[in-house]
Specification:
This protein has about 200 residues and is α+β, with helices and mostly antiparallel strands. Helices cover about 10% and strands about 20% of the residues.
Length: about 200
């Protein structure tokens, strides 16, 4: 694989359906995935409400690319530490971060199309199915959030919809085990289960 470019400026981003989206300089020079220095405009489209009075929560993203299960969608870059809020993502037991990008508009779903891997700071395609161009981009919020600043009623519409979404701490471990979870959520879940067994 060729070395990564320092910038995507002046290069064309080309999403494809049979290969990952790539950065091309218009020559026969080998190309690199768009997520090396992610230009999110090549990976996703943000759909915002048409009315300015609508809440931010009605914005969502769809994919501009097709990728196989488990593949890298984007690297998480440009992050800043944050206090826990509706817009933050938990990155470890004690760290919350702001995404500072259009990844903020990736919604929750009980049948997610993506996983936020906070150990590797990567967004990956869900392991159980491919991502298709036009698919809504979603992830399972309790996979990163031990507690949530704002629990909510899920309206994902999937057959697996869990209803009220709270942090992983408030959910049954049997339900959580059906999902991919970040390492720190797994650790805290095990600690909770061990505490219950010792009571």
């Amino acid at each position: 694989m060729a070395g990564p470019p320092t910038t995507t400026n002046g290069h064309r981003i080309t999403p494809t359906t049979s290969h990952p989206p790539t950065i091309s300089n218009g020559t026969d020079v080998p190309t690199l995935p768009a997520w090396i220095n992610p230009d999110l405009s090549a990976l996703l489209t943000v759909h915002r409400p048409s009315s300015p009075s609508s809440k931010t929560f009605s914005s969502y993203c769809t994919s501009l690319v097709s990728l196989p299960p488990g593949s890298l969608f984007a690297r998480l870059t440009g992050l800043t530490p944050a206090t826990q809020s509706y817009s933050s993502v938990q990155a470890s037991r004690t760290l919350h971060i702001e995404l500072n990008s259009n990844l903020l508009y990736i919604d929750h779903s009980c049948a997610p199309s993506l996983d936020f891997d906070m150990e590797r700071f990567e967004v990956r395609v869900a392991r159980d199915r491919p991502l298709r161009k036009g698919d809504k981009l979603t992830f399972f919020y309790p996979s990163t959030e031990w507690t949530m600043a704002q629990p909510f009623e899920c309206r994902c519409g999937s057959e697996a919809c869990l209803g009220t979404i709270k942090g992983a701490r408030e959910m049954e471990s049997g339900v959580l085990r059906r999902y991919w979870l970040n390492w720190f959520v797994e650790d805290m879940l095990r600690e909770n289960e061990n505490r219950k067994l010792s009571c």
